[in-house]
Amino acid sequence: MNGKYIGGGIVLIALAFGAGVYYAQEYGYYEQVSATAPAAAITLAELGGTLDPIDVAGYQGIDADSSPLRYRACFRTDISLATATETFQVYDAPTPLIGPKWFDCYDAKRIGADLEAGRAVAFLSQHDIHDGVDRVVAIYPDGQAFVWHQLNSEAEK
Hints:
- The chain is α+β, with helices and mostly antiparallel strands.
- It has helices at residues 2-28, 81-87, 108-117, and strands at residues 31-33, 43-45, 51-53, 57-63, 72-76, 121-130, 133-139, 144-151.
- The longest helix has 27 residues, at 2-28.
């Protein structure tokens, strides 16, 4: 009889711990980034290396202090893809990172598939925005754009 209570207690503790971990990963660390925050200022790296701020409309962003890789944002821009590819550095190996489910303007799987299919183009926003982390911007022909942070090749060595 005592074994049932001990086993049940262990199961309840494991369930509570699992719920806590899930909450921490999905909600606990993330904060909304306002359109006027410094993180909302989106730049693209020109071919010469200079950072050029771009016009942003409809900005929605999230970030967390727990990791530099948790930044995500969605916005619109008036830069055409033709102008962007002639002016800014195309990012060689973009890998959009999965964000929390509740941040529904950002879908990493769709963005990744669109980048592979050529329906969007990724550009370097800022190299080493944090040590070993680049900010990457994916732009679609209609002006929809997405931003995330990812490890750069220097961090992988």
